[in-house]
Design brief:
The chain has two domains: about 5-130, NAD(P)-binding Rossmann-like Domain (Rossmann fold), CATH 3.40.50; about 155-265 and about 305-405, no CATH class. It is an alpha/beta fold and about 425 residues long. The strands form two sheets. Strands 4-3-2-1-5-6-7 form a seven-stranded parallel beta sheet, with helices on both faces. Strands 9-8-10-11 form a four-stranded mixed beta sheet, with helices on one face. The chain is built from 17 helices and eleven strands. Helix 6 (about 130-140) crosses helix 11 and helix 14 runs antiparallel to helix 15 (about 345-360).
Length: about 425
């Protein structure tokens, strides 16, 4: 494909693997040029990808830069630039042709704000599977442009497609679904006994460890609840969550006449990624597995409280002006680190989410709230320095939040 360039952030993760698997099905003349590949600590996989796709740039953390260079074959060391800073990325993307360059954001976690900032600042269309950057953009930046984002989450991609049939002014309610993960139908004492190895195995989806944990804690649905507001300008009062244990129904739109538009498919991340590629002019002819057969049976459950106790609390009390989603992003990441280091179990993680949210956002005279509210929609994607300003703000305010929670005896000092 002439002059079309694709940057893949998170190329060594599940989303990156999915999109590259679709690339492999294309004939050479139809393949875009891979402009940049990024990875975190999967050095061997990143090197293998570079040998295969010959990206012009590799983006890695500073402390892996030398290791990546030394791991490259001698024949490639002078042909690829290894970069590690925002400044280097900024200089590179300031020179690309915005009409022929696309970004895929497959990073898991807070660092997904990097490609999203580049996309928004330079007006580069992006496919985004990173929940965190959409929430941060919605709560902390005043000029987020949702039209630059093609949603790759199954639920938001489903809404994106359904809105072609039902305009926003005709919407009565939007339903997104969750599977319940490993906790669906389990009693609290059974959840207490779930091991980390059990939690990270999703019954339906092939995903990374952290997002699979989010699927069982309800955090991913809390994030998706905000994403619907951010991406489609839908009031929070019009958004509901349903349980679909098979992950076949991704979203439903109910219009003012009570007609329902349903998006359903096999649980397959390749579908929205394929739609993104089609949007930018790359046709892979991908077809997912069928779900329609003689025994098809959709079962939806609206009782989310037992499965996702945090989610009901969050949806009922969510206020954008207090940067609640961004705060939970940082706390959830912190609690997951405790889980992976075996300082807490999954049941404790669920309880910490509920208790920390209640302390921070439901107690009166909380000194943290003013700091959060003062920075709501304060930053701008049009200002380069606001990337650093945003990073500095989140670092100091998160330390204040942790200290405050420790003062409230929620967490142990050793954490």
């Amino acid at each position: 494909m002439d002059n079309v360039n694709l940057s893949i952030f998170g190329s060594t993760g599940s989303i990156g693997s999915f999109i590259l698997s679709l690339m492999d099905k294309l004939q050479n003349k139809n393949k875009p040029e891979i402009f940049l590949l990024s990875g975190y600590n999967q050095i061997k996989k990143l090197i293998d990808l570079e040998e295969k796709y010959r990206a012009k740039y590799l983006f890695v953390p500073e402390y892996y830069k030398e290791q990546v260079f030394n791991s490259l074959p001698l024949s490639l060391r002078q042909k690829v630039d290894i970069i590690s800073s925002f400044e280097e990325l900024y200089d590179i993307y300031s020179q690309v042709d915005k009409n022929k360059h696309y970004i895929l954001n497959g990073i898991i976690g807070i660092n997904g704000i990097i490609p999203t900032f580049l996309s928004q600042h330079f007006n580069i269309f992006s496919g985004c599977a990173n929940k965190e950057s959409i929430i941060i953009s919605h709560e902390l930046f005043k000029d987020f442009k949702s039209d630059l984002v093609f949603p790759l989450d199954s639920e938001h991609h489903a809404i994106y497609e359904l809105l072609k049939a039902c305009p926003k002014d005709k919407i009565e309610r939007i339903f997104i679904t969750g599977s319940g993960g490993k906790v669906l139908g389990k009693k609290e004492e059974e959840i207490e006994d779930l091991s980390l190895d059990e939690i990270i195995k999703h019954p339906n989806w092939d995903m990374g460890k952290r997002i699979t944990i989010d699927s069982s804690s309800g955090i991913n649905k809390a994030f998706e609840f905000i994403e619907v507001q951010a991406l489609f300008d839908i009031s929070k009062d019009k958004i509901s969550i349903l349980i679909d244990s098979k992950s076949q129904i991704h979203a439903i739109i109910q219009d003012l006449s009570n007609y329902y538009y349903v998006a359903a498919s096999h649980p397959d991340m390749l579908l929205p990624i394929n739609k993104f590629l089609d949007k930018i002019g790359i046709n892979t002819s991908y077809r997912s597995s069928q779900i329609l057969n003689k025994s098809i049976k959709f079962e939806l459950n609206g009782e989310i409280e037992k499965t996702y106790p945090f989610l009901k609390l969050f949806m009922h009390n969510y206020k954008k002006e207090f940067i609640q989603g961004t705060t939970i992003i940082f706390l959830n990441s912190y609690f997951q680190d405790l889980l992976f280091s075996k300082k807490i179990n999954f049941s404790k993680l669920r309880k910490l989410l509920i208790d920390s949210y209640s302390i921070l956002f439901k107690e009166d005279k909380n000194p943290i709230l003013r700091k959060l509210e003062e920075n709501s929609n304060k930053f701008s994607f049009s200002i380069k320095d606001d990337f650093v300003n945003f990073t500095n703000f989140t670092e100091y305010v998160f330390k204040d939040i942790l200290n405050y929670l420790k003062e409230k005896k929620l967490m142990e000092e050793m954490w």
